[in-house]
Write a structure and sequence with these properties.
The chain is of the alpha/beta class. The protein has 8 helices and 15 strands. Strands 2-3-1-4-11-5 form a 6-stranded mixed sheet. The protein has a 5-stranded mixed sheet with strand order 8-7-9-6-10. Strands 13-14-12-15 form a 4-stranded antiparallel sheet. Bound molecules: adenosine-5'-triphosphate and magnesium ion. The site of magnesium ion (MG) has 3 residues, from loops.
Amino acid sequence: MDKLKIAIQKSGRLYEDSIKLLKDCSIEINIGIDKLKTTALNFPMEILFLRDDDIPQYLEDGVADIGIVGKNVLLEKRKKIQIKETLGFGKCRLSIAVPKSLIYKNINDLNGKRIATSYPFLVREFFEKKYIKAEIHEISGAVEIAPGIGLADCICDLVSSGSTLFMNGLKEVETILQSEAVLASHLHLGSPQNIIMDKLLFRIRAVKKAKNNKYILLNVPNERLEKIISYLPGIKSPAILPLANSECSSVHSVVNENDFWGIVENLKALGAQDILVLPIEKIIL
Ligand code: ATP
Ligand code: MG
């Protein structure tokens, strides 16, 4: 039977979330001890476990059909592959950081500096756009220690909380890319693989939509119903159900996570009672 080969990170920051995404899409896998590859139990899919840096090349060559990788790695490697979906995890930024003691006014202060990075292509491209002439030193790991040991004056590396920079006496001064994990694919998938990928994308989109929304239920005195439902979007419109107590109704709706607290505060102020909030597993429109 035809299978879709997906490459995911073998271990590291994207591993857990990649496995969880497959699980949320109801794809069951058994992870063996050697963890080189495995087959899904209930979906036509083979999972290859690789170093994240190698995934773009495998996708270009068609060794893997699709893969989960950081946008940062994908853009640095410049392989001929296609982004199919952003995945909302592995969020970080690629930033330039300088020693805390350096007085930094603007980007021109980077002229003539030595910069250590694992992202030489993206850094060069950024400097060219800004007309900065700096010396780029490519190193593959522990970039943040480079200024401390005299290897470079500043660095460009991935940052999420900034605590690693802080611990190494550095401060973030420019962001060159906002990144997150993406699902990318080989450019010329066979027809069976395309069909399976579309099934997977359908599930991923349903899971993503569900994560961004909450199901809310509230009791509303009937005289307040009209005002309250004007604040509630719902997927089509809110559902209204009668209660045994004929003075109140139960209102059900779906609200976006980002607008959630604002909506709840308004509902409460307008007289909504007993507000329940539930997570949604999947939304299929
Ligand atoms: P591998 O052994 O697979 O080469 P790695 O050490 O290169 O792993 P990780 O540190 O596991 O890579 O990071 C994998 C990806 O996680 C990064 O390329 C990036 O997209 C994402 N990421 C999210 N937050 C961070 C962060 N704070 N620091 C580094 N990477 C992050
Ligand atoms: Mg890597």
